[in-house]
């Protein structure tokens, strides 16, 4: 009988993923973006519609992330110029982004990391957010 390896739970998998990351606070991520790092928002549309977005962040759905940021892929974004870019992955609360950042590291994007606490930590830090109404082009005027 072949012995299968013990399965890992998600908490263990997440802890292992984070061992290889230098996770950033919201203010550190903002400073890194000012120096050329790419803020990459992987939240799904319903969350962006509900909460807004970070100005200047690239919106890349999670299921397309590796294809869009791999410098060797013909479907890459123009910003994915080489393996030395610094993608800072942002999810809603900072869980899925850790796993996604490790996936990018496996592609050779050795500077990939994520935002601890995700979009919610960015907003809680009082950093700029484009409101959902601005995303839809709505204008709310006073009476």
TrEMBL record:
Pfam families cross-referenced by the UniProt entry: Rhodanese (PF00581)
Gene3D superfamilies: Rhodanese-like domain
Record field: transmembrane: none
PROSITE patterns with a match to the protein in the record: RHODANESE_3 (PS50206)
InterPro entries: Rhodanese-like_dom (IPR001763), Rhodanese-like_dom_sf (IPR036873)
Domain of life the protein comes from: Bacteria
UniProt signal peptide: none
Residue ranges constituting the Rhodanese domain according to the UniProt record: 33-131
Protein name as it appears in the record: Sulfurtransferase
Species per Swiss-Prot/TrEMBL record: Streptantibioticus parmotrematis
